[in-house]
Amino acid sequence: MKTDWPLWEVFVRARGGLSHRHAGSVHAPDATIALRHARDTYTRRMEGVSLWVVRSSDIAASDPEQAGPMFEPAETKIYRHPTFYELPDAVKHM
Amino acid sequence: MYTTELQKVDPQQAPTREPQELIDAFEARVADDAFIEPKDWMPEAYRRTLIRQISQHAHSEIVGMLPEGNWITRAPSLKRKAILLAKVQDEGGHGLYLYSAAETLGASREEMIDALHSGKAKYSTIFNYPTLTWADIGAIGWLVDGAAIMNQVPLQRTSYGPYARAMVRVCKEESFHQRQGYDALLVMANGTDEQKAMVQDAIDRWWWPAIMMFGPSDDNSPNSAQSIRWRIKRETNDELRQKFIDATVPQVLLLGMKVPDADLKWNEERGHYDYGAIDWEEFYAVVRGEGPTAKERMEARRKAWDDGAWVREAADAHEARRRIKAAA
After folding, report:
1. ipTM of the prediction
2. Which pLDDT tens digit goes with each residue over A35-55?
3. Residues of B in contact with A5 (CB under 8 A)
4. What residues contact B85, with CB distance under 8 A and at least 6 apart?
5. How far is B40 from chain A (nearest CA, A)?
6. Each residue of B204-247: pLDDT tens digit?
């Protein structure tokens, strides 16, 4: 083998009702083998009931250097949270 | 399984000048216990220290499969075979988590495997000791994996995110390794005189190598200070070693066995065990890969890799054919 097999990111659904969560990555030539490797590597102890594998090169990610402009604007918008509003004690069920 | 830092490279010699404001921001982030993630800016020396440490750690997991894999067919019962098989499979898994973590820093899997097979890369010295009897397999699980856990627990909070996350997974699985080893020895320690003698013999041979797994003492560990400042390491070699000894001595006694250290004594004032001098000459000889076992291990590893080549080639051929079919 001359070069590494492509890298796949592995997402595991721990049980019904939960979303898939990133667990790690595996190398594999195709999706079928990636799923088998993911099963052997990340679900040896009943960690999951469902697996997704996605080619790492197909993931688009935000730039960490742009994290400020990207996420900081939300910091000043505290009125988006219910605790921003102080209501009289007499108001119930809200 | 675990390795401590073995290949000494001066991490200070960065190849290019790095902007001071980036270095300062990085140092401030790690000092504040923030996690560093793959695409974040990091000093080249930090990246290289981590690639070296994580890949050595990965190699140790992979090489660790060899002495135990040897014993699967000779395990004394079906239950012990199943347990050992599961443990060896875990070690393989741990190696894979760690290789993946190192890859996020720009190392390629192929490069790392090549470095291991060519003898360029180091792995934990503990695997260069022979495993002579079934009691050795119990002692490895209990003492070697026990020392590994001591080392790995603080690594769950190491500053590099992918390494820390790999360690969380490893630590969850490692506890079974230690317990099954002790459990195997407990059975023998309650058995015949011959079995008891085997347990004591295994402890006599594995005690010191396990103690040495924590690496050189603090005053002889030049890269430790920097690794601690960067929050790669959280506790020093000697601190971890002391913790391990304090935790393990009562376990030896509970087996009805003796610790092979004439100077071992509880120190009431310190609240710790005092222990005898470590034979570092032996440690460095084993690090350099002297002795027949080191050679055997690498030969077995290369053979496994070469014997598996047809499987990898078949998988490649299958994928190539699928592509052609899909294109047609």
Report:
1. 0.85
2. 999 999 999 999 999 999 999
3. 315-316
4. B72
5. 6
6. 999 999 999 998 888 877 777 888 899 998 899 999 999 999 99
